[in-house]
Amino acid sequence: MSEIDAEVFKALADENRLAIVRMVGSCGEACACDLLADLNISQPTLSHHMKVLCSCGIVRCRREGRWCHYSIDPQVAADLAGFFAGLTSTDGKRDSCSCGGCETCA
User: 81 or 90: whose pLDDT is higher?
Assistant: First the structure.
């Protein structure tokens, strides 16, 4: 699993970008024109949000003519899922901890 960058969390902290990720994820791929139709934002604002989402790697862009089609990068999504799954395990202990003060490290 690759390391999750803080930029992914910063990108997802914005409610518009989170809505965009949900829309793109539910469709598999979404055209910018469809995102604009469903969101109450301007085209320049959508472009800004998509630039942030693509820069952090969670969204991929495919150009077709004058339109961009967006999809979720499956590896980044899997890395995010693995990050959260690694926070806890079925026995309540972390897989690895280096805090020095918990039962796992003591």
Answer: 81
